[in-house]
Amino acid sequence: MTLAEPLEVVPAVAATPALHRRLGLTDAELTAITDLLHRAPNDLELAMFSVMWSEHCSYKSSRSLLRTLPTRGDDVLAGPGEQAGVVRLGDGLAVAFKIESHNHPSAVEPYQGAATGVGGILRDIVAMGARPVALLDALKFGWPTDSATRRLINGVVHGVGGYGNCVGVPTIGGELTFDPSYTANPLVNVMCVGVLREDRIAHAAAPTPGSLAVLYGSTTGRDGIGGASVLASANFDETSAAMRPSVQVGDPFAGKLLIEATLELVERGLLEGLQDLGAAGLTCASSELADRGGTGMRIDLAAVPRREEGMAPFEVMISESQERMLAVVDPARLDEVLEVCRRWGLPAAVVGTVTGDGDVVVVDAGQELARVPARALASESIEIPRLSSPPQRRRNAPAPGETPLAHDGLPERGMDPAAVLEALLGHPNLGSRAWVTTQYDQTVGTDTVAGCERAAGVLRVKGTKRAIVVATDSQPAVALHDPALAASLAVAECARNIAVTGARPLGITNCLNFGDPGVPDAYWQLEQSVRGLRDAATALGIPITGGNVSLYNESPLGRIAPTAQIGIVGVIDDVGDLVGPAFRSQGDLVVVLGEGGPGLVGSTYELLAGSAPEDRPPSLEMTKELALHEVLRRAAAAHLLESAHDVSGGGLAVAVAESAIWGDLGAELQVAVALAPAVALFGESPSRAVVTIKPDRWSELVKLASGLRVACRKLGEVGGQRLRIRLVGVGATGAAEERGAGVADELDVALTDLRRAWDHALPRVMGEG
Amino acid sequence: MSSAYRFSVSIMPRDGILDPAGRAVEAALPELHADNVHAVRVGRRVELTVESDSAAGARATVDSLAADFLANPLIESWAIEEMAG
Amino acid sequence: MSSAYRFSVSIMPRDGILDPAGRAVEAALPELHADNVHAVRVGRRVELTVESDSAAGARATVDSLAADFLANPLIESWAIEEMAG
Amino acid sequence: MKVAVVVFPGSNCDRDAVHGVQLAGAEAELVWHERTDLGGADAVILPGGFAHGDYLRSGAIARFSPVMGAVREHAERGGLTLGICNGFQVLTEARLLPGVLRRNTTLRFEHRWVRLGVERHDTAFTHAVPAGMTLRMPIAHGEGAYWLPEPDLDALEAKGQVVFRYVAPEGNPNGSERAIAGVMNERGNVCGLMPHPERASESMLGSDDGLLLLRSLVESMARVEVAA
Ligand SMILES: Nc1ncnc2c1ncn2[C@@H]1O[C@H](COP(=O)(O)OP(=O)(O)O)[C@@H](O)[C@H]1O
Ligand SMILES: [Mg+2]
Asked: Contact partners of D by the rule of 3+ C-beta pairs under 8 A?
């Protein structure tokens, strides 16, 4: 029974579609497989193709787009295609980092979905030979107004913490965004950062025939069978509830042992190649290791340690049981490898041999059950050209040279700026994340200089003067109108978060969360986002070293907002140069660097007050963004800055308020209004930062900024326990007349009121405050 | 005219679903000199009282509570028992 | 000549000891339209198989395992039942 | 002088504890849980983490690890023994310290910076803390609510075994009875606390108050006579 039965022989009830379709493969894909094999595949082979040719593993709809991204850089040691990107840090060290989604599993089982998402990305980092040192979680949910959404949020947050806290990797950042488009399709994107010695980088390749494939970690069960093809690449709805796939369950304890054992194996130089088992399990690991090594691999199913009895060959080959690794080992080092696994209490077995014939061969009890060229499953799997067309109605940013609207037509009348500021600080998208982040261990590892609640997480690197700085951002609200702009804005914001600390960026990772690529305007969103990502990364000169694509993020309620989640890792060569975002001392000058422009579409203010029909998102000029970052870095290195905070969600007023809240110091400021008060105070136009300096450093800062053509304007002074912002200029006067009598031209509010609004933002919507 | 019914709901990892807690307990047994113990599964038990006009009504309440709230049918199975007194 | 005996051990917070998990379930009940439910307690359930020559021997093993390991007598009480099958 | 830091499978603050001890000026050695000796160490630290996954109850499985025999002997001979977080849980499960650490009444894992009042300045673990000073440190645990029956709590307080309490402004983060954050045995050589002094041992990381505790331990090591 070894070889291919023609498909018609597959026992099938009349109404049941052919096996390949049930496995999610199209007729065209079946033809392609038949051509590749020069024969029809058997059931096991078909199952292996179905998981490897799923969107999740093959990137068949996105690969052609991803190829356009800038991936090179002098300090890039591993780029896309490896388990994670690796960039040089200095002092002989390197950083491995990557972001990945676990959206659909989290929708089905929030706790386990999120926990296994953390486990999965941790293993990617460990597979590079790096010790994980930080996690970040970017979460997107619908408005938490109903108990189902609140349970989802609780489950996901518990899951992220449940895994990360247990393995002892601090969570030092993330994102939490609410938007109705995520109600039935939440996003759980997790980023991990690891540190390794440059000369100890592990590679996912099996280059030497005769070497052994050792499977170690947890035993193999029926977890996530169909996960790769069903969970990750088909939209699910009520009807699929009946064919619920078996959910993966994480075991952080086993995950911790796996990390320690793997790092010992790498450190002692016992491995030739290494890959974690994620989607498509053993099929993926064996075919990719062989493909990258230019070899083949023979897998002996009988040798795979199992948790359950009676597993079919295809179940063993595609099982997504968690906490497993496949190592390629020189036979002479086998005993040492097995001894390390035994000591860490991990089952381990030789399950295969590297061969020279280029095929992945599956045998059981001496019988050959499958034979497929490794490259057909991996690097040469299919690509699907997709149709792209823009949606009918959208509002993109003004083209360069286009005159911006003179007035945003806002509902200015009756606006009390202090009340708006409190509402923004108390908005679930902007308020304190402590409700989430106190559930995460942020300080384990004794390296956390800044954890969650700041624009970027900062970790010192023991044994050096350096610190790693890391942040993650996205702009889904803008993306609904202009996905290319949104992706660029997310890169800009994320890089700005790095720059305000004084750090320079080393690399970008990204997670692209989109809808069904078969729908032309959904594909257009993906295409545009990749373009925006490419343009921004190129302009800022930051290589993109990896990422992840999650498609079919749709539910009966509709498609999610296009979400390009950006993660950037940076370095600060001397942690003594680090700049924090909190106001430091009474009398310091408050200065805004960069110039704002119009455009309230996509802002948090818009969520509260709406926007004029002819209004647009703010525009972004990458040269200005880059110049700002340069000023921030040089100013930090010259120890000019007392504090620095980027202007992003909620605009200038929220940036100032956050610095005030964190520093427990108020400020007295004047803001020039060119267009409208709402734009000046709450507009989210990019390329700006609020910094504070000692008064006697003013001329130095002006010189530095003007040298790089960055606007530099004094706003006022730090001090007191109130935030006062006087609005001055043309726009302020005009607007004040329009608003009529009795409305303040001045924002004047006590710090305690701002802090209260900010603190209660999440507890309030979660029904706990 | 309602009475009180007390139930227990035993919630266990479904067959075939990984049970990390059971596995960890089992791994520790040799150190407890209890290597004659195996197949350990760890779950939860919830006890609760339902006010209802009828035993059947009470039972229905617990049934739906267990399926929709106390357990996740994807990974857990459960058994409901009426408790004495 | 040993046989296998399967037991369940139900471990609950001792009477009079605060049970925050039970309280949290109760707090969620109104949203689930189950306000006729109260006195919720949340505990653990462990199932295990003992190999022994005799039912009494098996039972003794579980007894000591429960008291020394599965439960903490300071705050928890437990009940052991032999399971069918 | 050397401190043994026990590594259970699932410990995750073991290397942090070593780093802290080194900052306090002593040597530290990791001791794997399967060992039955402490390598001649003068003091032992049971570090934080999730020993054996903490699956049943925190510390319940770890208590049976082979190394715990050596820890018990060391403690019974009067050797200094410090349990931090999970280590505190293991010491209570092993009955080397009184009490139980129950699930936080918030039902959540809590990572917070807290402030500790030091009730005793005359112990091997606290003598370097200036009188009246409160200590700022992080907690990071899901099961840290200290509990004992009322009469036992009275006795514990009467005997001066309460060493640390959570104090204002942050206050009691986890529902511990009488805000107890750390206790010691009657003899005063075994101490456990939920907060993490090793994470508060460098000002760059937010506080170096915790170093006072580690320094107390290291200095005391030299003075404590451990019976042969
Ligand atoms: N889910 C989360 N997990 C951890 N940290 C988070 C999470 N959400 C937000 N944060 C942290 O809260 C802070 C504020 O987030 P955000 O408003 O997105 O910052 P910014 O606008 O500066 O990028 C950041 O430090 C971020 O890392
Ligand atoms: Mg952000």
From this structure: A, B, C
Q: How far apart are CA A523 and CA A124, in angstroms?
A: 28
Q: How far apart are CA A151 and CA A110, in angstroms?
A: 8
pTM of this structure: 0.92
Q: Does a cis peptide bond (omega within 30 degrees of 0) precede residue D169?
A: yes
Q: Are D129 and D121 in contact (CB under 8 A)?
A: yes
CB contacts of B27 in chain D (<8 Å) are 52
User: Whose C-alpha lies nearest to ligand 1, atom 8?
Assistant: A175
Handedness of CA D33, D37, D40, D44 (dihedral sign): positive
What distance in angstroms lies between residue A419's CA and the mean position of ligand 1's atoms? 23
Instruction: Measure A354 CA to ligand 1 centroid, in angstroms.
Output: 45
- Which residue, judged by its Cα, is nearest atom 27 of ligand 1? A173
Interface touch D55/B21, C-beta < 8 Å:
yes
Kindly report, residue by residue over A518-573, the tens digit of the pLDDT: 999 999 999 999 999 999 999 999 999 999 999 999 999 899 999 999 999 999 99
Q: Which residues of D touch C74 (CB under 8 A)?
A: 100, 147-149
The closest residue, in CA terms, to atom 14 on ligand 1 is: A453
Give C17-71 as a DSSP string. S--HHHHHHHHHTGGGT-TTEEEEEEEEEEEEEEEESSHHHHHHHHHHHIIIIIS
Residue A287 near chain D (CB below 8 Å): no
| pLDDT digits (tens), chain D, 228 positions | 899 999 999 999 999 999 999 999 999 999 999 999 999 999 999 999 999 988 888 999 999 999 999 999 999 999 999 999 999 999 999 999 999 999 999 999 999 999 999 999 999 999 999 999 999 999 999 999 999 999 999 999 999 999 999 999 999 999 999 999 999 999 999 999 999 999 999 999 999 999 999 999 999 998 866 554
Closest CA to A418 of A735, A724, A733: A724
Nearest chain A residue to C30, by CA = A147
Query: What are the tens digits of pLDDT across the range A262-299?
Result: 999 999 999 999 999 988 899 999 999 999 999 999 99
Q: Does C32 touch chain A (CB under 8 A)?
A: yes
CB of A679 closer than 8 Å to CB of A596? yes
- Most ligand 1 atoms within 8 A of CB, residue of A135, A157, A176, A658 to mutate: A176
Helix (H) or strand (E) holding A325: strand A324-329
d(CA A306, CA A321): 10
Pairing verdict, β D2-7 and C3-13: unpaired
CA distance A459 to A463: 12
Ligand that lies nearest to the alpha carbon of residue A654, given by its number in the listed order: 1
